[in-house]
Design brief:
4 strands; single chain; about 10% strand; alpha+beta; 4-stranded mixed sheet
């Protein structure tokens, strides 16, 4: 079917809509049936986040959400995730600074394990209550995703991909992006938010010319 369609997707591994959006993109690409080159890029939503802090205190103090409001938001998001076949345990989530996790993802992409590591990080964060902001926990998760942890540690210690994460975020902000997920198809079509699968399929068809008369 047509030519190769290139999709750049900016995400943060702590963004629940990115978690949902990732599942929708996978399904859309499968339904599209053509060849899609997906380039994953980092976007640090909260660059000032500490590595360790209390999620409930943050939600109450920074977002002004009461316990009842939090419960309603979490219940709604749990239903959305379930519609995509995703588990979601918001009460277990341990927010942190996501920069190191995204550095691991950059390395994983270079060795052909980006999808596996991304899936592992999403599950660890949104389902299992694992901490994804510390080197030791990231090494464990990387190993569980099939990576040798020794070179992962070496890359994190050297800060090899620190600039790459920042450059991805800067590139997105230059496009006017303030939130993720955000995608650009063939450097022309932009898609903000976790759009429905059908909308993503239509965008791929339009970009490939398959949807034209």
């Amino acid at each position: 079917m047509g030519r190769i369609v290139r999709v750049e997707v900016w995400t943060d591994v702590q963004c629940v809509w990115c978690y949902v959006g990732d599942a929708r993109w996978k399904r859309a690409i499968s339904m599209f049936g053509g060849t899609v080159d997906v380039v994953h890029r980092s976007f640090e939503l909260q660059p000032g986040f500490p590595v360790d802090f209390d999620a409930q205190e943050y939600l109450q103090a920074q977002r002004g959400l009461s316990a009842a409001e939090q419960a309603r938001v979490f219940a709604s998001m749990t239903r959305v995730a379930a519609e995509e076949g995703l588990a979601y345990a918001p009460e277990r989530i341990r927010p942190t600074n996501s920069h190191l996790a995204m550095e691991v993802l950059h390395y994983a992409e270079t060795v052909g394990r980006g999808d596996e590591v991304r899936d592992r990080l999403y599950a660890a964060y949104f389902v299992e209550g694992r901490h994804i902001g510390m080197t030791e926990s990231l090494l464990e998760l990387a190993a569980e995703a099939g990576l040798d942890p020794d070179p992962v540690r070496a890359e994190l210690d050297a800060g090899t991909y620190r600039a790459a994460v920042n450059e991805d975020s800067a590139a997105a902000r230059a496009l006017g992006v303030q939130g993720v997920p955000f995608a650009v198809i063939d450097e022309v079509y932009t898609i903000s938010g976790a759009q429905r699968t059908e909308a993503l399929v239509e965008a791929l068809q339009r970009a490939s010319g398959a949807g034209s008369n």
